[in-house]
Amino acid sequence: MKTTIDQVKHYVGQEVTIGSWLSNKRSSGKIAFLQLRDGTGFIQGVVVKAEVSEDTFQLAKNMTQETSLYVTGIVAEDSRSPFGYELQVSSIEVIHEAVDFPITPKEHGTEFLMDNRHLWLRSKKQHAIMKIRNEIIRATYTFFNENGYIKIDPPILTGSAAEGTTELFHTQYFDEEAYLSQSGQLYMEAAAMAFGKVFSFGPTFRAEKSKTRRHLIEFWMIEPEMAFMNHEDSLQVQENYVSYIVDAVLTNCSLELQTLERDVEKLAKIKAPFPRISYDDAIELLKEKGFDDIEWGEDFGAPHETAIAESFDKPVFITNYPAEIKAFYMKPDPNRPEVVLCADLIAPEGYGEIIGGSQRIDDVELMKQRYEEHALSGDAYQWYLELRKYGSVPHSGFGLGLERTVAWLSGVEHVRETIPFPRLLNRLYP
């Protein structure tokens, strides 16, 4: 019976064949222990000299790291293994012998591992991170599909900037200027006016020359947009969504979290509702914590976000930022127009902002005023203005950064490990 490692639990006591790679091995006299992987998981194959042919035992002892093979044996339960099973090997068929695999079971420098990212992905730690990433994506689709959202795909090539910034990748689109998208939000607002509740999931690009552990040049975002929803409605969707994906990872990635030595007790506390703190109160909190130079009207950096998050054991919403430091499309607070109806969701444990969201301006005259204040091209943004002209409604939305969320739930230090092939400042290979 041919099967995969993740399915061996169904074949205890039976003989199976698994196509796999040898990630590591060790031998102890008359027993060889093969650490096997097949993409679905890792399992130990035990080769006992007295129970196999001499050729098979010598093959097991001498096989090189990352050799591909078919291995046949009996599935047995193993309480000592985190996985819970092992394979009592009876025969081995080598498919391809790997020679001098560069990533050996020892410490390697970050740049070396990044240069060999195409091979580094095979390691147990990287496998666990990618499995958690995949679970977040799966849970995202389930959450929004089950709550009446339709997935809409915004364009990657655009003629304008979503947030009016200059940190864009420029390209030539035949005889006109174009940019790689920094957000699908504006297009998702158009989709929400057609379908009510929508979400997108796709790559975004920021030409920021940043080298922090939280930044990538190319990253993926989940961006829901919702008609007839105000800011408070949106906050409830955000905390329910984050709670849902955390629970999904805890439920379906327990082995991966164990591999990463993640403190799951901290994740188990992540249940809606989440605490909230206004921008005004955040400024006061920071001053109490020793940030004497922070003034009202300034944006928060990583040290500020970390200090605020330390006061909570759940993600915390920072609400109602000054309008001057937020995007042109955010709706002012009717009772206090110098601040906007927005929130950033800050993850615990120093992982920073994972969500930014707001209620959007729905008044066409106010949007025209914002165009003038931000020197936005009327031609490039005419279609966006028309969303307020033809049947405008209150609407809100947000964007969750996938890689920062993966880093937080995985407990890894740097976002470069949370995407298969990271694009960083000065790194475009492999």
Automatic annotation (TrEMBL):
Keyword Cell inner membrane set for record: no
Highest taxon of the lineage: Bacteria
Transmembrane parts of this sequence: none
Broad class of the protein's primary localization: cytoplasm
Gene Ontology biological-process annotations: asparaginyl-tRNA aminoacylation
Cellular localization per UniProt: Cytoplasm
GO molecular function: asparagine-tRNA ligase activity; ATP binding; catalytic activity, acting on a protein; nucleic acid binding; transferase activity
UniProt keyword terms in alphabetical order: Aminoacyl-tRNA synthetase, ATP-binding, Cytoplasm, Ligase, Nucleotide-binding, Protein biosynthesis
EC number: 6.1.1.22
GO (cellular component) term, any one: cytoplasm
Enzyme kind, highest EC tier: ligase
Catalytic activity: tRNA(Asn) + L-asparagine + ATP = L-asparaginyl-tRNA(Asn) + AMP + diphosphate + H(+)
Keyword Cytoplasm tagged: yes
Aminoacyl-transfer RNA synthetases class-II family profile domain span: 130-430
Pfam families hit by this protein: tRNA-synt_2 (PF00152), tRNA_anti-codon (PF01336)
Database matches in PANTHER family: ASPARAGINE--TRNA LIGASE, MITOCHONDRIAL-RELATED, ASPARTYL/LYSYL-TRNA SYNTHETASE
Subunit description: Homodimer.
Family membership noted in the UniProt record: Belongs to the class-II aminoacyl-tRNA synthetase family.
Name this polypeptide is given: Asparagine--tRNA ligase
